[in-house]
Amino acid sequence: MKEIDVIQIGDVIRKVRKNKNLRLEDLADENISPATVSNIERGVPHVSPDKIMYLLDKLGLTLEQIPQLLESETHRDNKLLIRLMAIESSIGYGDSRELLTELDDLNIGDDHKFAPTVHYLKGKCHVADENWKKAEKALYNAIRLANQYKTEEKYNIEAAAFCELSVCSYRQNHLEQALQFAESALKTFTEEGERTQIKYIAAANKAAYLERLGRLGEAMKVMEDVWSQIEHMDSTAALRLRETKVNILRKIKMYDEAVKVALEGIEKAQLNQHIDQLFDLWSSLGSVYSAKGDWSCAESCFKTALKLGRYVRSKNVLVTTYTKLGLLYMHQDLLEKAHDALSTAIRLSDRSSDAISTTAACLVMGDYHLKRGNTEEAAHFFSQSLDISRKYQNKFLQQKALFRLAKVARNKSQEDFLILLENMYEITADLEAGHNEEDYGEIM
Predict the structure, then answer these.
(1) Contacts of 346 (CB under 8 A, 6+ apart)
(2) Taking the chain (444 residues) in consecutive chunks of 10 residues, what is each chunk's mean pLDDT?
(3) What SS3 string covers 270-335?
(4) Which of 218, 270, 211 is nearest to 239 (CA)?
(5) Is this structure's pTM higher than 0.70?
(6) Smallest Cα–Cα separation from 348: which of 335, 362, 338, 337?
(7) Which residue segments constitute the domains of the chain, with CATH numbers given?
């Protein structure tokens, strides 16, 4: 028997067994174990053909009946797949509760071959509602069940679930964990399977997480590995990749190239009416012009992004752009404007939903007060940023906050200054951990 035949016969056997209200144990005897029955139903390869024939006989079936039963089973599967695809297409555009109810009404148990898909779609619904605990539970179930069903490899459910888990972690400010899930999505992706965009989305996410963690060399490598395939990506993944590339190019001072990539992305985002990505690209372009010292263009970009901000799905992104605008005004010594922009960023910030943006806003507000000579106020905001970055174990931001607190303490308390220096050393050591001789290429 060919492997595909084994898989299809397993589907038929499972359906007939359930229709007869039989358990796995009811079919087991001294010649066949419950585990073997389960393996046959799940299409596990290398099961003895004799065992399959023995099981068919126990169910009162013959090989001659299989083609007709398969045709009927395929018809039912196709109808079910259409329903599942319709539900997936609706996620993010309607009431998730209605979609979850529709999934429940399908009455697909965990022993059904489409169970991993159902759990994955439930996870996506919960992600859309930002119900992280329920999302993670459903996605972990999808991964667990996908490993049990050979047929699920073609749907890439395991990789897709890991990809959604990376989003869950990122949105909860756990960048390192988000990175691990994105890597798992890439490792489990099956090239011959469906959901071909998953590998691009996972790669774009991985590059973005590395960039946010300050690991620019690694982020650039991920970028270079997939950049040649950008025309094959869906618009969302391609635009996310472009935005990340803009940020990396800015940080390594390749400003003209960053502007070029940003403008290309903005044109594509406008054509595809991707408001969220359009907002991000205008904000990133503003950062490039700001780094170049082109204050007028930078301000125009930030204000354009903020105009678009009223239409974006997540208002957290406004915090970063207001912070960037405040920093721009500080560079120009327009301190009142800087205070207004930074105060708006702090007011809009929510450390539970976007700790990174909140931490950055507190750091820049602290810098503002330090520039005005208000050391107590500066220390207050630096301490806030340190508390948040410690809570979410973001060592990169902890290092920034500790350095600023040490700068404040240097002229006030030698004891506090030394304690902060020690803490900063420990964080820097953690950030350096895992580096090897190859990293010297970046500085020599």
Answers:
(1) 361, 362, 365
(2) 63 81 87 88 80 86 76 76 92 88 91 90 94 96 86 82 96 90 96 91 94 89 92 89 94 95 95 91 96 96 95 83 96 96 91 76 94 93 92 84 90 86 85 55 38
(3) HHHCCHHHHHHHHHHHHHHHHHHCCHHHHHHHHHHHHHHHHHCCCCCHHHHHHHHHHHHHHHCCCH
(4) 270
(5) yes
(6) 362
(7) 3-78 (1.10.260.40), 350-444 (1.25.40)
Distance CA 297, CA 295 (A): 6
- Single-letter residue type at 250: R
Question: What is the C-alpha separation between 342 and 177, in angstroms, rounded?
Answer: 30
d(CA 341, CA 351): 18
> How many residues belong to the chain?
444
CA atoms within 13 A on the CB side of 76: 14
The region that residue 23 occupies, defined by phi over 0 for left and psi between -120 and 50 for alpha, beta otherwise, is beta
Count of Cβ atoms closer than 10 Å to residue 163 Cβ: 25
CA distances from 129 to 95, 133, 217, 343 (A): 9, 11, 34, 29
Burial 329-352 (b: 16+ CB within 10 A, else e): bbeeebeebbbebbebbbebbebe
Q: Which two structure tokens, joined as six digits, stand for 137?
A: 């539970």
CB atoms within 10 A of CB 228: 8
For residue 434, give the DSSP letter.
Answer: T
Alpha-carbon distances of 28 from 9, 11, 112, rounded to whole Å? 18, 18, 20
Amino acid identity, position 418: L
Contacts 24+ apart (CB under 8 A), 221-226: 223/248, 226/200
